[in-house]
Amino acid sequence: MADERAIYGGQAVLEGVMMRGVRHMATAVRLPDGRIAVWEESLDPARWAARVRRIPFVRGVFALWETLVLGVRALVFSAQVAMRYDPELQDERGEGTASGSLRGLLWGTVALSLALSVGLFFLLPLGLASVVARWVSTGWAIHLVEGTLRLGILLGYLALIGRTADIARVFGYHGAEHKTIHAWEQGSSLSVEAARPYSVLHPRCGTGFLLIVVALSVVVFAFLGWPSLLWRIVSRVALIPVIAALAYEVIRLGARWYRLWPVRVLLWPSLALQRLTTREPDDTMLETAVVALHRVLVAEGQSVPALEIGRPVIVVDSLGAERSQAVAVGREAGE
């Protein structure tokens, strides 16, 4: 059971949480009236995808792309729910933004964000380090300077966005996701009360992944030396998938052996960084995360006890339109 529990994860979305397993995902969003809207989707991975997941390093690139695609779908859903149920976000006809337009807008935003991320976290530190290289040796020292600049920009960015109220709420749902996953992995019951005592920090978190990418980039780029500026730019962009694949394997190993104290010491910086991207969730956030994970577990045939929550749960489609009232959250798998 421990191995099966470790495969579940998720991410925070707008006023909600997406949880996923191997074959199913569920996104739960808190509505303005307090109800929880749930959208469930079967992933049905292809046979080749199952094979790819067993290939070290290659699986890292595949997993990151899959995470991006599923994450955007969950964000589209949460935004669609907001448009449909929040009167302040509806247009004059009482309707939200069309799904196709919203999906295109979000994918465009993702593409722009990826481009800006490459520029901000890879090319900007390189440019600053290239200036410093006039006074510093172009050996390991200059790569340490570049890595330090990259880390400083990352820390500043995370600290800055976390000061906005909307992002702070997303970080609260991020903490709720971690607490709920902890509760399931430790064998606790799926409930707000059981999840509440657990930490908002988790060894498999994507925030820690970013820190590992920064650390590995120093090592990888150091082996390339300090060629011309053009080749330095090309290498920073071209090797991002390679560094990401390495970081993914480090995350997997760290999560697998996390109970060993040397591993916990090595992972401490990545856990500390999560304090910038998580907040202590309130009970409504925990409740939303619990509902999302419960729906995935039921869909994947896990035998889970009944849920007792204070607000109705409704099933909606990918556009946020209500399909049925009062999901049988108390039904155990197999009934």
Overall description:
This protein is α+β, with helices and mostly antiparallel strands and 335 residues long. It has a domain at 2-115 and 148-203 and 254-260 and 279-324. The chain has twelve helices and six strands. The protein has helices spanning 2-5, 47-52, 58-85, 99-132, 140-161, 165-185, 192-195, 206-222, 229-238, 240-256, 261-273, 283-299, and strands at 9-13, 16-20, 24-30, 36-42, 313-316, 322-324. A six-stranded mixed beta sheet has the order 1-2-3-4-5-6. Strand 3 (24-30) and strand 4 (36-42) form a beta hairpin. Helix 5 (140-161) packs antiparallel against helix 8 (206-222) and helix 8 packs across helix 11 (261-273). It is globular and about 65 Å long. The chain crosses the membrane at residues 62-83, 104-128, 140-160, 208-227.
Q: What are the main properties of this structure?
A:
335 residues; alpha+beta; 6-stranded mixed beta sheet; 12 helices; globular; disordered N terminus; disordered C terminus
In brief, what are we looking at here?
The protein contains twelve helices and six strands.
Chart the SSEs and their pairings:
Layout: H1 2-5, E1 9-13, E2 16-20, E3 24-30, E4 36-42, H2 47-52, H3 58-85, H4 99-132, H5 140-161, H6 165-185, H7 192-195, H8 206-222, H9 229-238, H10 240-256, H11 261-273, H12 283-299, E5 313-316, E6 322-324
Parallel strand pairs: 4-5
Antiparallel strand pairs: 1-2, 2-3, 3-4, 5-6
